[in-house]
Design goal:
alpha/beta, Aspartate Aminotransferase, domain 2, single chain
């Protein structure tokens, strides 16, 4: 694997040490090329909608390959939040039912469930330690009224990897649906829905999947899909969409038997084109190769930070971490500004510096970061 050739596909690396993919990505050349082609074609001849529709189906196939799913299990969405809302509002909750969350979830995996209060659904909270939720703490909250568990595979802070496989085993044994926010894992870790045992997942394209904002996808396992009806419907989600070109229109609400039933009307065709290019790029490299590279760089960063005496909030064990490394410092704002002035791009989360890695990063990037961080040792 020639990582330097791959790195050259990211123009951002020419000037910046870009360590912020957990916030937003810097688009690679293969993605911007297809976006430019799309825009030019729409500018000069209005675009080709049949081509766009074909791209949608190609994108489903690319996604399915990436997560070991079937194309018919994939719905294209705007972002993670939309996918989580599809899950929360489509699961057939009854008054008195409950859903289990944990106290270290991203707000977007909380509000959609709190919104079910109007249906009489209770939210139960599992505690976390160092950002990790243990399966036994989830199990302690389960009863006969528990319908779902919602959890992140990788947390946005401090970047730990939850044991989804163990949580899925519990849910399967108890007849509970497992909904997973995978946005901080996609394009970084190997997310195999069959191996992990995920029922539904949601993600966005603007982080590890190398697409722009406004595009994402929702996965719903085929075995449960008939129990998860869509809240909103459109022509595109029917078995046989009405042909609006004809004078005589006959309507019958016959939902598609695949995930297209969760899609509403015309799609973000430009975003889907970009998403397909981003995922195809990832698939060409191999997600297992990417995972190994990211974990290797993260391990080097963690070890060097510890040797400098800097507190690392993220997990040390490789099996518990992903691409996020958070470091604690009493001068967080000043350090953030110093890094920015020196073209090292990171993010502040909960008064800590969050470094997020991808496969285009290398040891030189980490060394530049460490040289600047060393000046701010407490």
């Amino acid at each position: 694997m020639n990582w330097e050739e791959i790195r050259a596909q990211f123009p951002v690396t020419e000037k910046y040490v870009y360590l912020d993919i957990a916030n937003k990505n810097a688009l690679p050349i293969p993605v911007t090329n297809v976006m430019n082609d799309y825009i030019l074609k729409q500018q000069t001849m209005g675009g080709d909608k049949e081509e766009w529709k074909n791209t949608i189906e190609e994108t489903r196939k690319s996604i399915a390959k990436l997560i070991n799913a079937e194309p018919e299990e994939i719905a294209l969405t705007k972002n993670t939040s939309e996918g989580l809302n599809i899950a929360a509002n489509s699961i057939p909750f009854n008054p008195g039912d409950n859903v289990i969350l944990n106290d270290n979830e991203h707000p977007n995996n909380i509000y959609c469930w709190l919104n079910l209060d109007k249906k009489g659904v209770e939210v139960r909270w599992a505690p976390t330690k160092n950002g990790i939720v243990k399966v036994e703490d989830i199990e302690a909250l389960v009863d006969e009224k528990t319908k779902a568990v919602a959890v992140s595979y990788v947390t946005y802070m401090p970047g730990n990897r939850n044991d989804i496989k163990a949580i899925a085993k519990l849910c399967n044994e108890k007849g509970i649906l497992l909904v997973v926010d995978v946005v901080q894992a996609m394009g970084i870790l190997n997310v195999d829905v069959k191996n992990l045992g995920i029922d539904m997942l949601a993600t966005s394209g603007h982080k590890g999947l190398l697409a722009p904002h406004g595009i994402g996808f929702f996965f719903c396992r085929k075995g449960i899909m008939d129990r998860i009806p869509p809240v909103y419907v459109a022509r595109s989600g029917m078995v046989a969409p009405v042909a609006i070109e004809h004078d005589s229109l006959t309507y019958s609400l016959c939902l598609a038997e695949n995930a297209t039933k969760y899609e509403i009307g015309n799609q973000n065709y430009l975003g889907i084109t970009a998403l397909n290019a981003g995922i195809s790029f990832i698939n060409s490299i191999g997600i297992k190769n990417i995972e190994s590279k990211v974990l290797e760089i993260g391990g080097y960063l963690t070890k060097e930070l510890q040797s400098l005496g800097i507190e690392v909030l993220s997990p040390i064990e490789e099996t518990q971490r992903a691409g996020i490394v958070c470091l604690k410092n009493n001068h967080t704002k000043e350090l953030f500004e110093k890094l920015a002035v020196n073209n090292v791009i990171v993010t502040i989360r909960r008064d800590s510096i969050r470094v997020s890695l991808s496969f285009y990063n290398n040891k030189s990037d980490i060394d530049r970061l460490l040289n600047l961080v060393e000046d701010f040792k407490d």
